Amino acid sequence: EKVKNIPEYQLRHNKKENTLILKAAEIEQHASDFLQEYSKFNSDYSLSTPQATPIEDIIENYCGIITDYQTFDDSNILGMTAFSSGLINIKRDDEITPYRIEKGTIVISNELAEDENQEGRFLYTLAHEFGHNFYHRVLFETPDNSNQPSLFDDEPGETQVISCHRDNIENIDLTHNKDWTEWQADYFASCILMPREAVAKFWEPYIKEPDFVFGETQKALLSHMSWMEIEYHIGEFIKKFNVSYQAARIRLEKLNYIERRKRL
Question: Greatest CA separation found in the chain?
């Protein structure tokens, strides 16, 4: 079934590196526009309401993307997006076995799906893989992608996939030596799960606009609060948006609610 309700953008393309050229502000706007359209499909969702984004409903029902859950042969892989139908390696009964997936499928590690303590990271990984579907089909679904890496050395081009490892998930602050395709998916996941409008609404009661001094870097919006207070409210934020601590902290740094290099 064809993916639906994902807008098509005329994005700049670095053909040498086969990457899209996307600014953080563009990704923010794309995520907001997309969620605004989704709210017409799901009347229980509002872009400006602090709440957990129903990412599973968005992926499966609104966009018609297949999700699958498997144990990967490589335990460092948390998620995968397929850009063509074919075979991937999974583990079943401690044996590595080929497994067929259809084009467009998102595959998530059973490790995340079955562990309630990792729900935030599970949802973030889903959103990250959705980011690949959202942006990167144009890079990998083209006819001239035969030189893209394959999972199988003896079957070149058999299955076009992006495999996302642990160090690619929730690490949008580590932009040095970063795969920009992974950074884009990660930043998109952050914007989808914690849209700036809903984040602003959550923190609205606690904001005290800092004094602006010409020539100085703008202070964080919560700089007037103690770290104990901030930590308490971040705990509430995590529950409200159903995200992990790390994802919440990085998002709040990016939006200048808390100091960038502070670690709670």
Answer: 64
Which residue matches tokens 């904001």?
207
- pLDDT (tens digit, 9 = 90+) per residue, 92-114? 998 999 999 999 999 999 999 99
CB neighbours of residue 75 within 10 Å: 12
Alpha-carbon distance 191 to 184, whole Å? 11
Q: Say if pTM beats, i.e. exceeds, 0.70.
A: yes
8 A C-beta contact, residue 172 and residue 255: no
Among residues of the chain, what percentage have pLDDT more than 70?
84
Cα angle 86, 150, 75 (rounded to 5 degrees) comes to 90
DSSP 3-state of 51: coil
Side-chain half-sphere CA neighbours of 74 within 13 A: 12
Assess contact for 62 and 41: CB atoms under 8 A: yes
